[in-house]
Amino acid sequence: MSDLFDRIRDIGIIPVIKLTSVEQAVPLAKALLDGGIPAAEVTFRSAAAADGIKAIKKAYPEMLLGAGTVINKDFAQRAIDAGAEFIVSPGFNPEVIDFVLSKGVPMIPGVATPGEIEQALCKGLNVLKFFPAEAAGGVAMLNAFAGPFSNVRFMATGGINAKNMGEYFKCKNILAIGGSWMVKDDNELVTKLSREAVSQMHGFTLGHIGVNGADEKDAAGIAKLFEIFGLLGKEGNASWFCNSAVDSTSFEVMKGNGKGVHGHIAIKTWNIERALAYLARYGVEPDMSTAKYTGEAGKSSMSFVYTTMNIGGFAIHLNKA
What we know:
The chain has helices at 2-11, 25-34, 49-59, 73-82, 94-102, 114-122, 138-146, 165-169, 187-201, 216-226, 272-279; strands spanning 13-17, 39-43, 64-68, 86-88, 107-108, 110-111, 127-130, 153-157, 174-179, 205-212, 231-235, 239-244, 250-254, 263-269, 286-294, 301-311, 314-320. By secondary structure, it is of the alpha/beta class.
């Protein structure tokens, strides 16, 4: 199951789709795939759900498909028979949960309170749907959950859209978000909105620019020059950091040739593992010998890694924002 949850994390956005007909299923799936979202939660609020899942699985077996709004055992069985890879419910129904787990299928039940989370933990579940997210307290509630339930990750759904999705991705206990704002009648628009969502999902920002000094003396001299622009240097073991007092501008001056012909560029992102899955589509790989982690053993997340990407003689590394 952990592999499936890693796939959900790497995709990051799980569109919630209500099919009006089986014929709608495959073109809509293609539009999502073309937009960079190879996943969907097909809700059983439609009679076309089961056959729609079958059609999409046949046309695009690479697409990760879950069944949503599974509120009884009949829906659960139909979803499993159709080939759903995970089951999602809006609430916490022990009967449905036990039935799905007995079939060996991953279950993501809906929760909105600490009591429901504790019940889920008693069943061995630590990936849960936070629903209805905005109405149940949104980001503030997720941050509150992070303290007592540090080992729980959430797929938040309900009221999330292009304008507020970034705030959810900043939460350290977010596995993914669900939403339907990109699901429209016009499949070209579906692809456009999906691409925009994928672009926004990572929160990529410039961290700093690193330049290579020849040695300690050269690095100190370069750092001194940055003072002209109000970037005051602070010496570290391997480099000088030159930071602005008025904004987030910073340069790192290496005490010797680091990675990259000229230096490196640090890019911040909310989740490095998810960002690496995205960059892999462009042939960019991580240099795992440089990876650093934060958190307890078994629950750690990557906080730093160099990639194989090189832009204009500058190596690229990712920092967790």
